[in-house]
Amino acid sequence: MFFEVIYKDIEENKEYEEVINKVLTKCFEEENLQSSKLYITVTLTNPENIKKINKEYRNIDRATDVLSFPMFEKDELKEKIKNNDFEHVDVLGDLVISIEKVKEQAIEYGHSFERELSYMLVHGFYHLMGYDHIEEEDKKKMRPKEEKILNDLNILRK
Predict the structure, then answer these.
(1) Which residues pair with 49 in a beta bridge?
(2) Domain total of the chain
């Protein structure tokens, strides 16, 4: 298992966990991390909690959809993967997702809840892997990786 799900002030939901399992397993396969001892903590929460976390760690006083907290710098992680340096269990990072925001955005973008949650997971995963999208050049590397995972899983925009 590559992940742990934590529910913070929302009800547990097996369907969420099935999506998380399917998507993160594919992410780990795509990046050849199945034999690593890396794992991700996924916290599913509400807008109030994600707003507090966003304010505390990023000094942005508003709710958002997903927050990513990587444990490695991109080059450090690349080296670890290249050398297969996975003697011990290591946290790749933490994702915090606002389920309410996922529901809102699925409606706003006109696609399924599964698609929106899956995108949040893939997007967060690649942030944990050291990718970003602030600069256009970086976005050109990150977006195709995200789309490949979702297309391979047949989780398409509707």
Answers:
(1) none
(2) 1
Q: Do 20 and 3 meet the contact criterion of CB atoms below 8 Å apart?
A: yes
- pTM: predicted TM-score of the whole model, two decimal places: 0.93
Specify the DSSP element, H or E, that contains 12: none
In CATH, what number is assigned to the domain containing residue 20?
A: 3.40.390.30
SS3 19: helix
DSSP codes, 22-72: HHHHHHHHHTT-TTS-EEEEEEEE-HHHHHHHHHHHH---S--SEEEEESS
The string of pLDDT tens digits covering residues 8-52 is 999 999 999 999 999 999 999 999 998 888 999 999 999 999 999
Q: What is the SS3 string spanning 92-150?
A: EEEEEEEHHHHHHHHHHHCCCHHHHHHHHHHHHHHHHCCCCCCCHHHHHHHHHHHHHHH
Domain residues for the domain of 94 are 3-152
